[in-house]
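Blinded run. Sample ID left blank on purpose so nobody reads anything into the name before looking at the predicted structure. Input follows.
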Amino acid sequence: MTKDTVLKYFEMALRIWMAYILVSNSGIGIITPLEELGMPPKIFEIISGLWKTGFMMHMVKAVELVTGLMLLFNFYVPLALLGLIPVVVNIYGIHIFLFNRYFTNGLCMLLVCGFLVFRHWDKYKHLVVRR
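Blinded prediction complete.
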């Protein structure tokens, strides 16, 4: 096996893992009530407040579901990452500032997004690098 083949399989495995996390969590608050999750009261207040806006958490869950399916089916992965990275940064921020935990699934998701951006860098470099 060549290095490129190994990276391709590694990328596929990470995409599927990320898609699983996103699609399975997109139902939280819709299918699974927040009360059943056993969250600390402060976090429950914040997340239920976002649901009460009628917009914020609905959009987050829609982005999680759509980008998760895009990653699962390898459909416009660079575009999916553009929508997903702000959500993942916020997920990790919640883990840091509300749960006081640094090494969580949020960090793993952020690192996977970084790896996927690196793998698709040719699609992004014209946005970042000026000639």
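Unblinding after everyone has recorded impressions. The mean pLDDT is 89.
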